[in-house]
From TrEMBL:
Source organism superkingdom: Bacteria
Pfam families: CHU_C
Keywords: Signal
Protein's UniProt name: Gliding motility-associated C-terminal domain-containing protein
């Protein structure tokens, strides 16, 4: 047999390649120039990283592999300036076609336009592995120096210095450099170079001075109201006076100084004060209320005429009467102070009470405050009521006084005359003053509550009163015949505690209302005056307690009633109630919420309130609790193998109206719109999705969204 060995062919691809980072890489040919076909690994060149690419010939060609070594050169950034700010009048610089770091290229646009903002892009010539560069050109508008453009000056004004910096910061020079206040003129401000600003012109106007046309003299009466000094002259000059107000008591000069900016002169007012004459009327007068007052004269003894206010004296009240001179007399007002001396009231007692048997006092003809006079009648009659009038002697400015004499019959002290006490009562203290004001003493002086007896009150002397007797009777105590024991359930409505016993004793309870949640004693205290004993009602509450737990078992949400240690679960009856008051479970201490919610056509919206009623014999306790979320959570495993466990992605407890499933590459593989419960079991198009982790987004009827993952396994 003849064997021929054929030498291996080397695919004649290039073995090295240099690329610019980020540039498009060439496609790797699958046939070499010398006709060898095959595949590359990797299959495409990555222009961002150095690497080797191996060509493997297809079988049957007797050819070797070939390696392409790719080197990535980083891009150079042309180091031009990236920003430029110009004034509209500036001559823009020429755009260089070679960067400082040696990159050549072209600009677009090719020339800078200094009238508009813009971006100028530099594109490197090919073969340099360099990036583009951007120049942002900002055109700054010319600034107008914000000096005032007009100025009015008085010939005598000191003109302001021309500032070399405008309020908005532009510096420059003026021509002329200083203002001449004797002639009108224009002053031009030229900004220094480099500020992108325009010139500004100040127009100066010289105004002649105005003389304010106020009166220059004024004569006043001393003390009269002086006119207010006007701050504006008849010819319109405004300013201030010094002094600011005319003093009508002394001669003086008042100088008006115009406000700045009016180009006006000062003006002087010369004020002359004439002394006032004082009308020489009497200034005080004292009268008795019953006196006839004098007429007020309208001419003073020194000849000043005028009027009075008030015009006539009122002798019933103190007052000031002001005389005002008629105009044209340069005289002052005069005041007459009238004092009305009040009538003195003789300070005798105005009332006197006598017993018919009393000796009446003698009526004094001089009062304690010194008023003398006479009485009518002249002597008191103690057997009859009457008024006795005292009339003062003349010349004392005093009023009459009346003494009212009351002849009083003997008073009976209005104490109670009978008193009934219990043997255990603390007897009242015997008052030494009766309700109608009679004072006195008792015999005996204190009540003995153990024995019946009479107690006699004797009035103190001088009261025109009789004795009074109190009869005291001691009564045995009554026991109120209430029940003394009561048994209740915690939920029972406790009976109202009667305030009257069956045998008629009234009183109050402490506490006033029965608390059916705890054992306790309730004490009845009889109202005073019944001679009855206290009674105690012992209330016993038959109570039990329980707690409610919530837990997840085998993906089922259970709610359990746990009684306290004194009872067993089987001792009670149970009733589970939904938020509409419907019974949804009965006679079971455990409620499967998952099973309940899956039976419903309309899934309950969470959070949800439920209630359980636990009863023992006639006693029952209810408790409301809230299901805030599905305690069992969203399943994270779906295994559709028909074993009855996690065969579907079950979200029936979540009120889902949209479900989306995505694979690990972010591709949507399932989308359900509508009322979702458990419709997805791994299906995709006409087949099944492969085992793996998938990601979901669910949207609920109440607007919430949730995202997570689920593992699909068969």
């Amino acid at each position: 047999m003849s064997v021929t060995i054929t030498p291996e062919i080397i695919p004649d691809f290039d073995t090295s390649l240099t690329l610019c980072s980020g540039n498009s890489a060439p496609i790797l040919a699958i046939t070499s120039p010398n006709g060898i076909t095959g595949t590359w690994n990797p299959t495409a060149i990555n222009s961002s990283v150095n690497g080797n690419y191996i060509f493997t010939p297809n079988t049957g060609q007797c050819a070797t592999t070939s390696t392409l070594s790719v080197t990535i050169t980083p891009e150079i950034i042309p180091d031009f300036a990236t920003t430029l700010t110009l004034c509209p009048t500036d001559i823009p610089p020429i755009l260089a076609t070679t960067s400082p770091n040696g990159i050549t290229g072209i600009w677009n646009p090719t020339v800078i336009n200094s009238s508009v903002n813009g971006n100028y892009i530099f594109t490197p010539n090919t073969g340099q592995c360099a990036a583009t560069s951007n120049l942002t050109v900002t055109i700054t508008p010319e600034i107008i120096p914000d000096f005032a453009t007009t100025l009015t000056v008085c010939p005598t004004d000191t003109p302001p210095i021309l500032a070399t910096t405008s309020p908005n910061g532009i510096i420059g020079t003026w021509n002329p450099t200083a203002i001449n206040s004797s002639v009108n003129g224009n002053y031009i401000f030229t900004p220094n170079t480099g500020q992108c600003a325009t010139t500004s012109t100040l127009s100066v106007t010289i105004t002649p001075e105005i003389i304010p046309d106020f009166d220059t003299s004024l004569t006043l009466c001393s003390g009269n109201s002086a006119p207010i000094l006007a701050t504006t002259s008849p010819n319109g000059i405004t300013g201030t006076w010094n002094p600011t107000v005319i003093n009508s008591s002394v001669n003086g000069n008042y100088i008006f100084t115009p406000n700045t900016g009016q180009c006006a002169t000062t003006s002087t007012l010369s004020v002359t004060i004439t002394p006032e004459i004082i009308p020489d009327f009497a200034t005080t007068l004292t009268l008795c209320p019953t006196d006839i007052p004098p007429v007020l004269a309208t001419t003073s003894p020194n000849g000043i005429t005028g009027t009075w206010n008030p015009t006539a004296i009122n002798s019933s009240v103190n007052g000031n009467y002001i005389f005002t001179p008629n105009t044209g007399q340069c005289a002052t007002t005069s005041t007459l102070s009238v004092t009305i001396t009040p009538e003195i009231i003789p300070d005798f007692d105005t009332s006197l009470t006598l017993c018919p048997t009393d000796i009446p006092p003698i009526l004094a003809t001089t009062s304690p405050n010194g008023i003398t006079g006479i009485w009518n009648p002249t002597a008191i009659n103690s057997s009859v009521n009457g008024n006795y009038i005292f009339t003062p002697n003349t010349g004392q400015c005093a009023t009459t006084s009346t003494l009212s004499v009351t002849s009083t019959p003997e008073i009976i002290p209005d104490f109670d005359t009978i008193l009934t006490l219990c043997p255990t009562d603390i007897p009242p203290i015997l008052a030494t003053t009766s309700p109608n004001g009679i004072t006195g003493t008792w015999n005996p002086i204190a009540i003995n509550s153990s024995v019946n007896g009479n107690y006699i009150f004797t009035p103190n002397t001088g009261q025109c009163a009789t004795t009074s007797t109190l009869s005291v009777t001691i009564t045995p105590e009554i026991i109120p015949d209430f029940d003394t024991i009561l048994t209740l359930c915690p939920t029972d409505i406790p009976p109202i505690l009667a305030t009257t016993s069956p045998n008629g004793i009234t009183g109050t309870w402490n506490p006033t209302v029965i608390n059916s949640s705890v054992n306790g004693n309730y004490i009845f205290t009889p109202n005073t005056g019944q001679c009855a004993a206290k009674v105690t009602l012992a209330v016993n509450v038959s109570s039990f307690k329980y707690s409610v737990s919530q837990e997840c078992i085998d993906n089922n949400y259970f709610i359990k009633v746990i009684p306290n240690s004194d009872f067993k679960t089987s001792d009670f009856n149970y009733s589970w109630i939904d938020d509409n008051g419907n019974q949804i479970g009965y006679n079971d201490a455990t409620f499967n919420f998952t099973e309940y919610s899956e039976r419903l056509n309309n899934k309950p919206l969470l959070p949800l309130q439920l209630k359980v009623i636990v009863s023992l014999e006639s006693c029952e306790i209810e408790q409301v609790f809230q299901i805030a979320d599905n305690l069992c959570g969203i399943p994270n495993v779906v295994s559709p193998n028909d074993d009855g466990i996690n065969d579907n992605f079950n979200l029936s407890s979540y009120n889902v109206n949209n479900l989306k499933i995505f694979n690990r590459y972010g591709t949507e593989v399932y989308n359900f719109q509508g009322k979702y419960e458990n419709q997805w079991y791994g299906q995709w198009r006409n087949g099944k999705l492969p085992t793996g982790t998938y990601f979901y987004i669910i949207s609920t009827q109440n607007g919430e969204s949730k995202a997570g993952w689920v593992f699909l396994s068969y």
